[in-house]
Design a protein that fits this description.
Blueprint lengths: L1 H38 L2 H35 L1 H7 L4 H23 L6 H30 L5 E3 L2 E3 L3 H5 L4 H30 L6 H36 L1 H7 L6 E2 L3 E3 L2 E3 L2 E3 L2 E3 L2 H7 L5 E2 L13 H30 L6 H29 L2 E3 L3 E2 H4 L6 H31 L1
Antiparallel strand pairs: 1-2, 3-8, 4-7, 5-6, 9-10
Helix pairs in contact: 1-2, 1-5, 1-7, 1-14, 2-4, 2-8, 2-14, 4-5, 5-7, 7-8, 7-12, 8-9, 8-11, 11-12
Length: 427
């Protein structure tokens, strides 16, 4: 089981970055081209073409890693697919349709620059934006079902009365889809802005300075809109977890005992049934859950020890996600103030924006850790344990090492291609 979890976890951690960029980057591309159509400024046109090449590279790498994941679901988790395949097959099928639509229109968009009218070419980019977001949304609904299974009954160990729509629209689907989609725009916005800020700091794009500044502005506008909305979405999903997934919620805050006036615990080291060296904000958790400091919040003492997630990992991941998002929000606010005053970003702000690129990736990865580890020990909560769902076939550890090498090669190839795009554009 350990090897299967390690392989699946590595695959997901690798793929989620490309999935997020695949959702967010098309929006930046058509925004840049739309501004070119409106203003006829060459900088926007060049920016759109540069970002479009990056979009194609990231789509190709994401398609490879996503295909690997599709095979791993069946090969590594056969018992899970036996139970869940017929229940959550619909969102995976719809994701396939969305993927093919995205692939078709990416082809039209890339090869249509000089073969279509400017307006028609811009319109051909809209399905890429929509299908990319829908593709991620359909996969997220499957994950939502794993957190709160719905749309079926089990009679004598057999799944019966399957309702595919109810399964796809299980209780967490909306909050999870919104949270995941906003995360994609956050990581893409800050990622693209970081590249532009880094270029300005190095003064390596003097001949393209107007283009880089335009890219920084567009990317930071997207990021500055998405990050506060993500905070609102995070608040909503936290309240949902407190009501429908209380064990996961208690793990986020390392709340071991059910209590009123429950505090929010920031940081610290989980040791046994306590948190050492953490910073507590009295009654804040009760206020967050019910807007009432006297509200009772369920702790981990409500479930058996064997049914608890790995609290130390979940709590640390949650703090990392929230801490990273806090810094991203701070940089976005500072940039917005500078932009509204129509001032040029100073060097310290550009350094902050450049650091926000990797920080946004950290936030996304930490958020994924929270989702996956917070559901343990269940692969489908209350239905099937992870230990019972994993394959018993030999050689999974060998597959782990082999695919790890594949991911390293894919990452290196992607980096090399993206560098070549940047070098060519500079030339």
């Amino acid at each position: 089981m350990t090897a299967a979890r390690a392989l699946m976890g590595t695959s997901l951690a690798f793929h989620i970055v490309f999935a997020a960029l695949g959702v967010g980057l098309p929006l930046l591309v058509i925004t840049a081209e739309g501004l070119w159509l409106r203003t006829r400024r060459r900088a926007f046109y060049d920016l759109a073409r540069t970002w479009a090449k990056g979009m194609a590279i990231l789509f190709a790498v994401g398609a490879v890693s996503g295909t690997i994941l599709a095979f791993e679901l069946g090969l590594l988790w056969p018992t899970f697919m036996k139970y869940a395949g017929g229940i959550i097959g619909l969102p995976f099928s719809l994701e396939g349709f969305a993927f093919f639509i995205e692939a078709i229109f990416i082809g039209l968009y890339l090869y249509g620059w000089d073969r279509m009218s400017p307006g028609a070419h811009w319109l051909s980019g809209l399905p890429i934006v929509l299908s990319g977001a829908l593709s991620a949304a359909f996969v997220t609904t499957a994950n939502a079902w794993m957190n709160v299974p719905a749309g079926f009954r089990i009679v004598n160990g057999t799944v019966v009365e399957v309702d595919p729509i109810a399964a796809m629209l299980s209780p967490p689907w909306l909050v999870e889809v919104l949270h995941t989609t906003l995360a994609a725009y956050v990581v893409t916005g800050f990622g693209a802005a970081a590249v532009c800020a880094y270029a300005l700091l190095r003064r390596s794009a003097e001949d393209r300075r107007e283009q880089v500044r335009a890219g920084l502005t567009i990317a930071m506008i997207v990021a500055s809109i998405a990050i506060p909305l993500q905070w609102v979405g995070g608040d909503v999903i936290a309240r949902f977890d407190a009501e429908r997934e209380p064990t996961k919620f208690a793990s986020l805050e390392a709340l071991f005992h059910t209590r009123r006036h429950a505090p929010i615990t920031i940081g610290g080291i989980v040791s046994g049934d306590a948190v050492r060296y953490g910073i507590e904000i009295p009654s804040a958790l009760s206020v967050l859950v019910a807007f009432d400091p006297n509200a009772e919040v369920k702790g981990l003492d409500r479930v058996a020890p064997d049914d608890r997630p790995p609290v130390a990992v979940v709590h640390a991941s949650f703090d990392t996600m929230v801490g990273s998002a806090s810094l991203l929000l701070l940089v976005a606010i500072v940039w917005a103030i500078v932009a509204l005053r129509k001032r040029t970003p100073a060097k310290p702000l550009l350094i902050g924006i450049a650091l926000c690129g990797p920080l946004a990736v950290v936030a996304v990865e930490a958020g994924w850790f929270v989702t996956e580890f917070g559901r343990q020990p269940w692969i489908a909560r209350g239905l099937l344990r992870t230990s019972d769902a994993a394959t018993v076939a030999p050689g999974v550890d060998v597959q782990f090492y082999a695919f790890f090498v594949v991911y390293v090669v894919l990452a290196a190839t992607c980096w090399w291609l993206m560098r070549r795009v940047g070098t060519k554009e500079a030339a």
